[in-house]
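Incident review: delayed structure delivery

Summary: a single-chain prediction request sat in the queue longer than the usual turnaround. Root cause was a stuck worker, restarted by the on-call engineer. No data loss occurred. The affected request and its eventual output are reproduced below so the record is complete for anyone auditing the incident later.

Affected input:
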Amino acid sequence: MPDYTPLQKCRTTEEAEELTTILKRNHLNFKISSSARAFDVSQLGSLSNDPNDKQLLISVLDSDFEAARSILEENEQSIPLPPDHFLNNASDDDLIEILGNPESWSPFDVAHAKKMSHSRGIDSEKIQAKTNERIAAIEKGKAASKKLIYGGWITSILGALTGPIGLISLIGIGIALSLCCMKEKTPNGRFYTFDPQSRKGGKRMLTAYASILVIAWFLRLMNTA
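Output delivered after worker restart:
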């Protein structure tokens, strides 16, 4: 099964149709999905009501990502910046931030940020340094929230005490495994969602769960003997 990389989020179906029309015109395969996950354990303890969390997500084949991004940016270059667009007041640092993290910005913003950086003579090494900084942050992963850690420990322990078959047990195991194993797909590769300390916490939860489960079963056997 081919791997797809997220290309752009679209707030409306009209925006998504415009984007996919360009991709079709250039014979690029794509798929459309919702950017909101049905259940994202990484967001527990930090839930957001931001409507932008629920958008249409356009993804393309890994091998087509750079080509698709370039095509979209070229398509936007001919469109002039509106007078009230934030880029008209952007500093050099703002442009470096956009170009060092282009996947977080629209092709329109990136295309015009490139034009502005060229006209200002911004050093490409500064942009590359920002890119490296972003990749390093992704590779490091994020710290799990305290609510997620506490919830994982509580449900893991209670689940082990009440038995492996049950909702609490499944939630505890799910949180622990997510902390250990969950990864994010980015144009730069797949990286662990959580930082090393959070992943160690997940492994400890699994170890504690298994230990308590074995001890609880052993005590039950002793009581029935």
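Verification: The chain is about 55% helix and 10% strand.
Action items: add queue-age alerting; document worker restart procedure.
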